[in-house]
């Protein structure tokens, strides 16, 4: 597993690469380790298990306050919520997040048609 420190986002895995915001290590080492563990447990593909992991997120037990505080105090982390970004001149696509947005939009359209 390759760990690539970047200057934005939080942490996520694409295939065999984990991308993590380098600011997290200096912010809280326990949070950094927990996020690496969490990303290691992902399949690196798109599966129900990967989606389910985001809801329990047991690896961050006891660290969630620090996690949310990091997001609130580090605007660079907000790119985590974008499914597409550039890193080292390469276009990176978080397909799991992209599918999540597409499903959310489709659900929204279906709901709006009903009401
Ligand atoms: Zn995850």
- Biggest sheet descriptor: 3 strands, mixed
Oligomerization state: single chain
Shape: globular
Backbone CA Rg: 15 Å
- Bound compounds: zinc ion
Q: Which structural class matches the secondary elements?
A: alpha+beta
Mean pLDDT: 89
Total domains:
1
Tally of DSSP helical segments = 5
Total count of strands: 5
N→C terminal distance: 47 Å
Topology pattern, helix = H, strand = E = EEEHHHHEEH
Strand content: 15-25%
Measured as a percent range, the helix fraction is: 40-55%
Low-confidence stretches: none
Q: How are the strands of the largest sheet arranged?
A: 1-3-2
Which keywords apply here?
115 residues, 3-stranded mixed β-sheet, two-stranded antiparallel ribbon, 5 strands, 19% strand, binds zinc ion
Overview of the structural elements:
- It is a single chain.
- With 115 residues, the chain is an alpha+beta fold.
- The chain has one domain (2-114).
- It contains 5 helices and 5 strands, in the order E-E-E-H-H-H-H-E-E-H.
- The strands form 2 sheets. Strands 1-3-2 form a 3-stranded mixed β-sheet. Strands 4-5 form a two-stranded antiparallel ribbon.
- The longest helix has 20 residues, at 95-114.
- Bound molecules: zinc ion.
- Zinc ion is lined by residues 38, 42, 53-54.
């Amino acid at each position: 597993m390759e760990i690539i420190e970047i200057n934005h986002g939080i942490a996520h895995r694409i295939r065999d690469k984990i991308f993590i915001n380098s600011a997290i290590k200096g912010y809280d080492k326990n949070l950094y380790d927990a996020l690496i563990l969490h990303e290691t447990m992902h399949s690196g593909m798109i599966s129900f298990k990967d989606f389910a992991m985001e809801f329990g997120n047991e690896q961050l037990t006891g660290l969630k306050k620090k996690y949310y505080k990091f997001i609130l105090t580090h605007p660079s982390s907000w790119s985590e919520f974008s499914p597409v970004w550039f890193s080292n001149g390469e276009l990176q696509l978080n397909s799991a997040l992209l599918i999540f947005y597409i499903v959310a939009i489709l659900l929204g359209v279906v709901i709006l048609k009903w009401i």
